[in-house]
C-alpha cells in the first residue's frame, strides 16, 4: 500500500523518491522519528524530524483515504452499482472530497423532495426537461403526469416535482461540487453579526459584531474567535461567495439555451443552490478554513512549547524554592541537587513584624546550613513582594534569585503523578517543589504536565484536539530526545518520552533501578522487563549514564557504533577516553577512512562531533534575569517606561510579555519591530528576554500595551492595531496570574520554624 503513494508524497513534499521510500520502510518497521533523524541519516538522505514527521503523517492520511476507497467500492459492489467507469474514477480520486463527491449519487439517502417526486412517477418528466430540447413544451409534457391520487393535482405541481429531482441531480454532480468548492475557498466572504439582545453579554466579541472579510485572507485567530463567539451564542456567522458567481458556474455547466425547458433547468439550479448545494459547500468551506486555522494555531502552540521545553536549565544545584502568597503565606521547600524534597515549611513575610523576622531568620539559616546554590520564586501573586523580601536578607551575591514561571503548577500539584510522587504532602508542597525543579531542569519537570495546561497556546480548546495532541506530543518527544535523558536519575514520566519507550517500559526501568541500583552500562537495559532488541535499538542512544562502564555511555554515540569508535581509538594508538579528551588525537582521524556500506559520512561526522563534547546539552547557557526593582504592580506603570521582560506567549497577532507586575502586557504585531513583521514567531520566542516600552495602561481592565520598537511613539492612547483587543476573544494570554497552586492555611499544622531543617539535617546524615 505504501509503494503506490511514494511518488505522490515525493511530489508533494519535494523530496527524492528514495528518501520517502526509505523513511516509510523505517517507520513501518517501528522506528521513531527522533531515531531515524539521528541514527539513520544515510538511509534517508539526512532528512530532519520535520520532514520525517511529514512523511509519516502523509502516509497515514493516504492510508485512511485508501480505507475509505475500499469501503465505498465494497458498498457499490454489494448493491450492484459499480460500473467499470465509476471504478476507474474512484481509483483515481486523490482527495477525500473527490471520493465522496463520486459516491454521493449512490449514497443511501433519507426521504427528500426528490425521492418523493420519484415516488410520484415524475422522474421521466425530469429527464425530458434535462434534455432541454428547443421544441419542448414543459406544460404539455407535464400534463400526462397529473394524478391527484399521487398528489400531483396539476401540470405546475408535476413540473415542481421534476425540478426537485433536477435540483438533487445537480447537487450530486461531482464536477459542479468541485467547481463550487473552489469558488467558496477562493471568493468566500466570512461575515459575522451579533445575535440580537446579546450585545452586552457578548462584549468580549465586540470586534466581530459587524465584521466582513475574505475568508482566504482571514488569520487563524480571527476565524477561531468568530467560531467561538458563534458557539457561545453571541455571534451569527456565514461564509459565502457572491451568489451570482455561484449560479453562473452552475448555469454554464447545465443550461443549454434560453428556451422553455432550459428555463426549467435554470429554475432548478437556483433552487438547488439556495436549498442544497450552497449550504453543503458552505459547510465544507467552513471545515476547510477551520482546519487551516487549526493548523496555524497548532503550529504556534507547538513552536511556543518547543521554546519553553528547551529553556536553559540551571542544572543540579541545591535549591530553596518558594511559592509566594499573601494570606496563606509562602510555601518554602528545600531540594537537593537531584531535585529530591528534603523539607518544607510555611513562612509569612507579609504579616506581622514578628513573623517577618521569623521568616528572615529561617531563610538565612537554611541558606547557610545547606549551602543553598539558588533560590526559585514562583511568579504568581505576591511574587515581587516575596522577591523584594528575599533580596533584602543580605544573602551572598553568588546565590541567584530567580523568578520562575509557575503556569500549570497547580495542575501538576493536583495530578495523579504528583500524588504518587508525594503521597504524604499536600498540593501546596507539591506546587513549590515543581517551581524549584523547573528552575533546575524545565524539560524534566514540564513533561509531567499535559502540554495543553502549560499556557502557551492560542485557542487550544477550539482546535482539533487529536491534531493538537499529536503535534504537542511530537514536540515533547523531539525535545526530550534532543537533550537526552540521564538514565539513573530520570523520572518515569521523562523516560516515557524517550524514543522507543512507553509508560510501561519506563516504569519497568525505574523499578529495575530501584531494585538493583544504578545502571552501570547501557547494555544492562536489556535486563529490564519488556526491553527487547528493537526497543533497545530505538532508546539506547538517547539515554545517558554518567561515569558508566564504557566512556561512550555518557554520550549520544549509539551502542551499535561503539566497535567503530574502538577501532578509531586503536588506529590512533589511544583509548576511547583519550579520544574524548584530546582534540589533537581526534584531529588525526580521517572519517572518510571508515565509510562503509552501513556507515556513511554523516554518521561519522556526528560521532566525531559527539566525541569532542560528549553528552553536550543543546540548550543555551542559563543566565539570571531580574525584573525592574520598584515596579511590581500595574499601578506602578507609566507610559514611556522601558522595562526588562520575558516573552511568555507568542500568537498570530503579537506576543505577551511578563514585565513583573502580575499581568502580562501585549505587544501587538505592529509593535514587535522597527520593520514590518508578517509572523511574530520570526521576531520573538517564548522565554526570550526583551526590553519593552510601556505604551498604554488601562487600570480598570488591567490591560497593558507594550512595544519592542527602538523608539516607539508614546501617546495618550497607544495604537492597538487591527487585531483583537488584549484579553478579548483572542484567547492568547493576558490572563491575571493565579495565587500559586490551590492553598490551605497551614499555620496551625506547621512545625516550629527550626524543626523542619533540623529534621532534614538528620536525614542528610
What does it look like?
The C terminus is likely disordered. The chain has 765 residues and is an alpha/beta fold. The strands form four sheets. Strands 6-5-4-7-8 form a five-stranded mixed beta sheet, with helices on both faces. Strands 11-12-13-15-14 form a five-stranded mixed beta barrel. Strands 2-1-3 form a three-stranded antiparallel beta sheet. It folds into four domains: 104 residues, Arc Repressor Mutant, subunit A (Orthogonal Bundle); 192 residues, Orthogonal Bundle (Tex N-terminal region-like); 137 residues, Nucleotidyltransferase, domain 5, CATH 3.30.420; 109 residues, OB fold (Dihydrolipoamide Acetyltransferase, E2P). Helix 1 packs across helix 2 and helix 2 crosses helix 5. It contains 30 helices and 15 strands.
Task: Work out the number of β strands.
Answer: 15
Shape assignment: globular
What can be said about the biggest beta sheet? Answer: 5 strands, mixed
Unreliable residue stretches: 717-765
Mean pLDDT over the full residue set: 90
Global Rg: 33 Å
Descriptive keywords:
single chain; 765 residues; alpha/beta; Arc Repressor Mutant, subunit A; Tex N-terminal region-like; Nucleotidyltransferase, domain 5; 4 domains; five-stranded mixed beta sheet; five-stranded mixed barrel; 15 strands
List the helices and strands and how they pair.
Blueprint lengths: L5 H8 L3 H12 L4 H7 L1 H4 L4 H30 L5 H9 L3 H8 L9 H7 L3 H9 L6 H5 L12 H17 L2 H14 L1 E6 L15 E5 L5 H12 L3 E6 L2 H12 L5 H50 L9 E5 L6 E6 L5 E7 L5 H17 L4 E5 L4 H9 L9 E4 L4 H5 L2 H6 L5 H14 L1 H5 L18 H19 L1 E2 L5 H4 L7 H14 L16 H7 L3 E2 L17 H10 L4 H6 L1 H5 L13 H12 L29 E10 L2 E5 L6 E4 L20 E10 L4 E5 L47 H10 L1
